[in-house]
């Protein structure tokens, strides 16, 4: 996978934020990209006539859509970034519906795509990257079930790798857990809410987070991960403004 030319990459949740940065980075690395999102999005023209970006407006949580997109495009890399924006409020102010929103969306999307990758299966040598969240490690008390949903995404990515190994499939699954960044809509809202909860200004809160993760850094990191030798890929990574860090 070191050469992405001609290797179709599906990026699910590509319309904004980290997903947009990841889709753009793969196209610039030479890959034909299928950018899946619920809404239309615009992308810069890849430099030097490198890869391409084809937009697919679709519900990534619909299992019939998942199977159709994989059958039609035959990807050799699938990057799952899509998810619901959680409601930012203390536990007692959640309803069950707001608390469970990320289980119904984020986990469902990961489940359907991981399942289809194994059942189809994807071509030998293919890679699947599930973009979870650093909240899976640290918790997230203002987002209801978000942290638990993101931890479950990480768990089922590991389950998929085990099943691929048991079936003798040459597929690599890994989870990437990005740290909160104010350079996405979700991160910006969360930083504001947590700063207020801690009695800090947003600037004070963000200063303690270290180098900020940008969509461009995320894109470069995931491209590097997909291009790496499969034997060197860990089950999970923390992603910060400083890049990828293997998780134990």
UniProtKB/TrEMBL annotation:
InterPro entries xref list: NAD(P)-bd_dom_sf, SDR_fam
Organism whose genome encodes this protein: Kitasatospora kifunensis
Domain of life: Bacteria
Keywords attached to this entry: Oxidoreductase
Cross-referenced CDD domains: SDR_c
Phylogenetic placement of the source organism: Bacteria, Bacillati, Actinomycetota, Actinomycetes, Kitasatosporales
An example molecular function term from Gene Ontology annotations: oxidoreductase activity
The keyword Oxidoreductase belongs to this UniProt entry's keyword annotation: yes
Protein name: NAD(P)-dependent dehydrogenase (Short-subunit alcohol dehydrogenase family)
PANTHER family reported for this sequence: 5-KETO-D-GLUCONATE 5-REDUCTASE, ALCOHOL DEHYDROGENASE, PUTATIVE (AFU_ORTHOLOGUE AFUA_3G03445)-RELATED
Family: Belongs to the short-chain dehydrogenases/reductases (SDR) family.
């Amino acid at each position: 996978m070191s050469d992405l030319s001609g290797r179709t990459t599906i990026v699910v949740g590509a319309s904004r934020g980290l997903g947009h940065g990841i889709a753009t980075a793969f196209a610039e690395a030479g890959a034909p990209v299928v950018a899946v999102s619920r809404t239309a999005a615009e992308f810069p023209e890849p430099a030097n006539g490198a890869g391409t970006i084809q937009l697919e407006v679709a519900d990534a949580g619909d299992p019939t859509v998942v199977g159709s997109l994989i059958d039609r495009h035959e990807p050799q890399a699938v990057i799952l970034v899509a998810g619901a924006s959680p409601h930012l409020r203390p536990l007692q102010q959640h309803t069950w519906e707001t608390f469970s929103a990320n289980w119904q969306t984020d986990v469902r999307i990961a489940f359907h795509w991981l399942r289809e990758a194994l059942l189809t299966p994807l071509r030998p040598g293919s890679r699947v990257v599930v973009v979870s969240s650093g909240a899976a490690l640290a918790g997230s008390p203002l987002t209801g079930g978000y942290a638990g949903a993101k931890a479950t995404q990480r768990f089922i990515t590991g389950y998929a790798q085990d099943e691929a190994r048991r079936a003798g499939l040459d597929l690599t699954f890994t989870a990437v857990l990005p740290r909160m960044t104010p350079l996405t809509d979700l991160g910006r809202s969360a930083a504001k809410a947590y700063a207020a909860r801690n009695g800090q200004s947003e600037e004070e809160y963000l200063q303690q987070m270290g180098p900020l993760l940008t969509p461009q850094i995320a894109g470069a990191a995931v491209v590097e991960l997909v291009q790496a030798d499969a034997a060197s890929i860990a089950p999970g990574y923390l992603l910060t403004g400083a890049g990828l860090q293997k998780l134990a």
